[in-house]
Amino acid sequence: MAPVAGMLKERGYQVTGADSAVYPPASTLLVSLNIPWHDGFRAENLQPPPDLVVIGNVIARGNPELEVVLESKIPYISMAALLEEVFLPGHRNIVVAGTHGKTTTTAMLAWIFQCAERRPDFLVGGMLPNFGGRSYGLGRGAEFIIEGDEYETAFFDRGPKVFHYHPDELILTSCEFDHGDIYADLAAVELQFQRLVNLVPRNGRVLAWGESQAVARCVQKAFCPVETYAVSAPADWNATDIQWRGEQTHFNVAHKGSIVAGLRMALVGNHNVANALAAVAISSCCGIGWDKIQGALATFQGVARRMDIKGEAAGVLIVEDFAHHPTAISATIAAAHMRWPGRRLWAVVEPRSNTMRGKTFESELPAALASANGVVLGPVSRPQLLEDSLRLDPRRVAEIVQGLGRPAWAMNSAAEIAVLLGNEARAGDVILVMSNGNFDGLTGRLLETFAKQAKTRGVAP
């Protein structure tokens, strides 16, 4: 919602809004754009009445501002429908969808097209250092590159947001069960992606992850050409000879069995190689030369909160990541081991997403976490919204991890975690904090804890 507010302001609209607990990077983006907002929802925030209200998908009946909108007949629209009506028309839309990898892949595409002087419009679900920390751009070029979310659109539109984006080029990165609050099972998720694939015109294209039977089922009835990409299985596009050296990942790209390019990037992990492979494949299909693709990927700085180094104090490195699904957590831990080989790795997880807060992944989470050297789970976010029988039990997860041979704790707060790790971590360790929220400022708390230790010991922080 924050970047969409920025897009509207750049188009000349007067924009304001309301939310609760706005924190960086959304808050800093709004400040930089001089967009005011109200902290908290109140009826008086809609005085004088605006011409249009954009309603986010977290807003439900009973919200005081929504009730005023309905009672006063103020025109309203969803964020996705706003994009559909105001920003997407007139473009060739490149949409990145899937359970994992959407944000990084979309960001890579935007940067490749930017470096190729295609001046793309784009919207990404993360802040991009390559674009000065912004997550959108209005270059007014021929393409609109957008991350397509399968979560519901609004209280009055229960379909996925991505259905509003009219893809001409569609990347389907993965298909796993997620969003257990709105989808009953994997089949329900697959159905939405099948419907999305059915929206791609005959002169469009689908690029599908070739190592997933679920993805294969999603694209099997496509009316347009379908190509596949993979890291460890035969596909139309493959990444080969993957190596981490000189602080960069190096790999080759093969198309139809022939090497077409050698690439390097600062990102680490096979999951990021897969993201890059998807981005460069579509870029090549859209006519961008390999010299431009190589230069762009080599200078791509990643996405904020994806393996984001927050600082180092007392020899302990603090890293933040957005991972909040067992598959993403496992991939992120593996990438951290590759990036910092030989260093003891702590995995610290906040069960915050709607699916992670429930028991859906309680049996899968321990194995994903046990690939770290030590594990700490925070409290379940908003626990009062779930019955005890439906809520994830972090202590149970910690016990299972302990049974797998790793030290593990379940703590009641970010403050307690900072104290625990202040006692347990030592110089040379890496602490990987994973959450789709701000985890009550845990990364800052940890840096403060270890900076105090360094000062006490009289060593450089």
Short description:
The protein has 14 helices and 22 strands. With 461 residues, the protein is an alpha/beta fold. It has 3 domains: 2-74, NAD(P)-binding Rossmann-like Domain (Rossmann fold); 81-298, Mur-like, catalytic domain (UDP-N-acetylmuramoyl-L-alanine:D-glutamate ligase, 3-Layer(aba) Sandwich); 308-457, Alpha-Beta Complex (Protein-Tyrosine Phosphatase, Chain A), CATH 3.90.190.
Describe the protein.
- The chain has 461 residues and is α/β, with parallel strands linked by helices.
- It folds into three domains: 2-74, 3-Layer(aba) Sandwich (Rossmann fold); 81-298, UDP-N-acetylmuramoyl-L-alanine:D-glutamate ligase, CATH 3.40.1190.10; 308-457, Mur ligase, C-terminal domain (Protein-Tyrosine Phosphatase, Chain A, Alpha-Beta Complex), CATH 3.90.190.
- Helix content is 32%, strand content 23%.
- Helix 12 (394-403) links the parallel strand 20 (374-377) and strand 21 (408-410).
- The longest helix is centred in the middle third of the chain and has 16 residues, at 270-285.
- The protein is globular, with a radius of gyration of 22 Å.
- The two termini are 37 Å apart.
Task: Describe the structure using short key phrases.
461 residues, Rossmann fold, UDP-N-acetylmuramoyl-L-alanine:D-glutamate ligase, Protein-Tyrosine Phosphatase, Chain A, 3 domains, 10-stranded mixed β-sheet
